Amino acid sequence: MTDILERLTDYIAQRPSANGRTFHEMDEEVLIAQSADEIVKLRTALREIACDGEDCHCQAPQYCSYGIARAALGEKKDG
């Protein structure tokens, strides 16, 4: 399965041009585009707060930002 962000972006790209059109805030194209933007922002924030795991000396690994943030991003810790 492809990434949800890719699927949302592909969907918007396949839609007719939005030039000259006005959209209601609840229109599906608006909601999809806003959702994609929100996913990008959240992934950026997760990458920012996730420790790199190399110098991590957490006493409680289950609460380590590496494990939590990287798992949310779909990434796995090496090793």
What attributes characterize this protein structure?
elongated, mainly alpha
What's the helix and strand layout?
Elements: H1 4-14, H2 28-49, H3 65-72
Description of the molecule:
The chain is an all-alpha fold and 79 residues long. The model has no long low-confidence stretch (mean pLDDT 79). The protein is built from 3 helices and no strands. It has one domain.
Give a quick rundown of the structure.
By secondary structure, the chain is an all-alpha fold. The protein has helices at residues 4-14, 28-49, 65-72. It contains 3 helices and no strands.
The end-to-end span amounts to 25 Å
Summarize the amount of helix as a percent range: 40-55%
How many distinct beta strands?
0
Counting DSSP H or I runs of 4 or more residues, the number of helices is 3
Q: Averaging pLDDT over every residue, what do you get? A: 79
Q: Structural class from helices and strands?
A: mainly alpha
Overall shape: it is elongated
Oligomer: single chain
What is the gyration radius calculated from CA atoms? 17 Å
Strand content: under 5%
Number of domains: 1
**Unreliable sequence segments:** none
The biggest sheet, with number of strands, parallel, antiparallel or mixed sense and barrel status, is:
none
Summarize the helix and strand pattern as letters.
Answer: HHH
